[in-house]
Amino acid sequence: MGGFQYKDNVLQFFPTAEGYVKNDSGVLSYVFQYKDHLGNVRVSYAKNPVTQVLEIIEENNYYPFGLKHNGYNDYLPITNKYNYNGKELQDELGLNFYDYGARNYDPAIGRWMNIDPLAEKSRRFNPYTYALNNPVYFIDPDGMRAEPPIGLDVKNGTVHTDNSGSWKYNSATTTWEDQNGKNNIGNTIELDNVNIKGYKNNYVSSGEYGPSKDSKDVAMAVGIVTLPVLAVTGGLTGGAAYLYSEGISAVSSMTIADGATGIVANATSQYIANGGKVGDINIIEAGSSAIPGIGPVIFGETFSYSANNFIKNEGIQAPDSFAKWSAQVGGGIISNRFGKATDNYLVGEGIGGKVIGEYFKGIIETGSNAAPNLIK
Q1: Comparing C-alpha atoms, which of 43, 79, 78 is closest to residue 60?
Q2: Is residue 143 part of a domain?
């Protein structure tokens, strides 16, 4: 009841910030706890009422999935059973489950005993899997969804400053507000179906890996990558001329049907690659797919704007990191060249050849759209 634990109408203990207060026949005494980064209680200690010396009254050592070591470090049983992840051990009938709220967890097998109520949010993982099979890093605070254990107690007004700028946390809007009035960061972002609750200290600036999201830096990144490519194709002038002539030739020969096919094919491949999230489809990339050639590919892979960006009143976005941008552009160029070669090979093959060509082009394009998501 409100954290106060009773047995037969007698108060047993109640929690504090450092541990808990236990009741020994009406005598209240503090018990302090040492917890690891996952919130697991490793050591509990209290002052001996006779000697007035601190003594360890409980020590817990766990296997990765929470099963407690036995056979050593044994102490007298205590009434507080909130240990692994700070959850209560349900030892009735010898079941030894942990009660997480939404589900019960069995540390002996490292699996939940109930299906995940948010299973559709984590389609990559078995609905009975605990902590995404990585219990050393992730926790599951309420049995609903795994998340990193750090950054969950961020307070209103907390300021974080790094090389990319300065942000202040607004608990009313659950947003990290950019102190320079540029890009705010939402309280919760989703990475690989895992919710990472907003904590700017966990946010890694893309500038630490390469160019940041600033438009000037993106332009520099384009130059850094494309200039050597253009040099290899015959120097800057020759490379630019090639891109220009290819674009003019493509535009002059394309039809409305070809443009529509390119847009639909690209949007479909994005939809498949992002796990069926219509709102995340990059409208710029899909639109640029209407025009054949490398130039539109580079443009469409460098900038993005989706329905979700519109809903959140966000501007045009750039890749999170230099590595991701390189993967996007590289994959787009490979997909584009494969598509061009396929079209040339199947010239005159009729409707059947067109269908076959679009099928294999779609596979390559979906792969190129999915590849950047593998880069952290």
Answers
A1: 43
A2: yes
Three-class SS of residue 321? Answer: coil
Is residue 209 situated within a structural domain? no
Judgement on whether residues 283 and 314 belong to the same structural domain of the protein: yes
346: Cβ contacts below 8 Å, ≥ 6 apart: 353, 354, 356, 357
Write out the DSSP string of 21-83: EEEETTEEEEEEEEE-TT--EEEEEEE-TTT--EEEEEE--B-TTSPBP-SSS-----S--B-
- The upper half-sphere exposure of residue 298, i.e. CA atoms within 13 Å in the direction of its Cβ, equals 14
Q: Phi/psi at 310 (nearest 5 deg)?
A: -65, -45
Task: Name the band, by pLDDT with cuts 50, 70 and 90, for residue 37.
Answer: confident
* β-strands 165-170, 194-197 pairing: unpaired
Q: What total of structural domains would you count in the chain?
A: 3
In a domain, 82, yes or no: yes
Same domain, 222 and 140: no
Both 257 and 359 in one domain: the answer is yes
108 and 242 in a common domain: no
Question: Burial of 153 by CB count in 10 Å (0-12 exposed, 13-18 middle, 19+ buried)?
Answer: exposed
Q: Please give the Cα distance from 121 to 100 (Å, whole number).
A: 19
Over residues 250-281, the pLDDT tens digits come to 666 667 877 788 788 888 888 887 778 888 89
- pLDDT tens-digit map of 205-231: 333 333 344 444 455 555 555 555 555
Question: Residue 232 is part of which domain span?
Answer: 215-374
Whether residue 290 sits in one domain with residue 358: yes
Q: Is residue 34 part of a domain?
A: yes
Cα angle 192, 119, 84 (rounded to 5 degrees) comes to 85
How far is it, in rounded angstroms, from Cα 75 to Cα 317?
57
Angle at 176 between CA 170 and CA 177, to 5 degrees: 85
Claim to verify: residue 38 and residue 62 sit in the same structural domain: yes
Based on the fold, state whether residues 223 and 198 are members of the same structural domain.
Answer: no
Between CA 134 and CA 221 the distance in angstroms is: 35
* pLDDT above 70 for 249: no
Average pLDDT of the residues in 58-64: 91
